[in-house]
Amino acid sequence: SLTDSPVILKILQNWVPRVSHYFDKEHYAYVGHRIVIQESIEHFGAVVWPGALALSQYLESNQEQFNLKDKKVLEIGAGTGLVSIVACILGAYVTATDLPEVLENLSYNISRNTQNLNMHKPEVRKLVWGEDLNEDFPVSTYHYDFILATDVVYHHAALDSLLATMVYFCRPGTVLLWANKFRFSTDYEFLEKLCNVFNTTILAEFPESDVKLLKATVREN
């Protein structure tokens, strides 16, 4: 075989990747803007998933129903930042949050795609679901009109913490928009829990990608 060749072995031994991360630049167009997203395959959160495309498309197409101009928007599990960038283009005050290891790529994408816009500057912050919410986002100071979340539900152990985080940030008047690819029974179990806590409606379905977009609001007593 080729790998038995001393020359090939020497080449393989001497080969060192130039870059430690694999990045891919993806091009999107929303609200009349070209958006370039850098992905990293090293983190789940640094890839553009179908829910982000679905929600970006929906926000672009339904600006009268969901007018983000001058609204305070929090994205949880922002990943590559695509949805936050679209919300910023639509005029929102955006706070994009994710795990510490995703923030560098997230910040890069958001700054490069919004730096020349005459819009509110987005903020990028660490948010670990269910942890230090009162300390980092005290109720007295932080109130959001919209909570955005895409493909945050998949096979991971933090689903209860995710729900607790959604509950924490959703006050009377807050609208949670959650787009997710539904693959497994755990996805539907989470949806059931969400329906038990919030008034929940399905806004749109994207059959080609198995994505559902849901709107949830706090139940008024």
TrEMBL record:
<keyword id="KW-0949">S-adenosyl-L-methionine</keyword>
<keyword id="KW-0808">Transferase</keyword>
<dbReference type="InterPro" id="IPR019410">
    <property type="entry name" value="Methyltransf_16"/>
</dbReference>
<dbReference type="GO" id="GO:0008168">
    <property type="term" value="F:methyltransferase activity"/>
</dbReference>
<dbReference type="InterPro" id="IPR029063">
    <property type="entry name" value="SAM-dependent_MTases_sf"/>
</dbReference>
<dbReference type="Pfam" id="PF10294">
    <property type="entry name" value="Methyltransf_16"/>
</dbReference>
<keyword id="KW-0489">Methyltransferase</keyword>
<protein>
    <submittedName>
        <fullName>MT21C methyltransferase</fullName>
    </submittedName>
</protein>
<dbReference type="GO" id="GO:0032259">
    <property type="term" value="P:methylation"/>
</dbReference>
